[in-house]
Fold this protein.
Amino acid sequence: MPEGYITKGIGGFYYVKAGDRMLECKAKGIFRKRNITPVAGDKVTVEEEAGSWVIADILPRKNVFVRPPIANLDVLFIVASTTQPTPSTLVLDKLSAIAADKDAQPVLIITKSDLAGAEKLKSAYAPSPLPVIVADHATGEGLDEIRGWIEGRLCAFCGNSGVGKSTLLNALLPQLSRETGAISQKLGRGRHTTREVEIFEAFGGFVADTPGFASLDTGRACYIPKENLQYAFPEFEAYIPECRFTGCSHRSEAGCAVRAAVEAGEISPTRYESYLAMYDEVKDIKDWEVR
């Protein structure tokens, strides 16, 4: 059976790139019975059935995101503007933690450095291993670095509305006409301008256009248990074994090596504050409540 990957799903149809062909497919009924929904990024096998193509099987996934629906993501580009809208490090850290928890590499892209300096935002991530790219679609700054991350990987762009995701995609992929959407001055944020996930081939890799990948509910749709949250902040990793107590929550325990690293300037205070805020959100949630 031919193998391929889903580029887009809309109206119950899935568009599968199999070699040089783009096949319009329906999903077999067995997936509904198993409560499995094919999503963009899924690697699949297809077969002909009564003169039409159907998805016969979904190959094992590296990961899957609920909102937006996408599978096998390798890199999550988190786009933040220096202003209009003003960045929230908590939102950025939630997105990077979700990516890390799902074994995708988070990469921070800073836009609008012509309107306000990028140094404050860059300094917040200087002690962390999170790659940071300052990008300018007008001058081309940072675009080659972004292309390098895309090569050989499936990548998605996310961030608050109005930060310039569509403008950035237009600069990277000028052959694709994409509505950019105006900033709402009254609300201080942009309008959603795309409606379904679609994957494009680019720079030896794949780019997913992912509408709605901005506000994620970490306590539900992207729930990270409090015991796992420390591992979603990779800069904590070297210090966790040095904590005095096994199972240290890194909040108030004596002999916590993570807190000591924050005080020593080895871990960013804003990253640590985000960890505390995220821990507080999930500390009372039971696993069965999100299943």
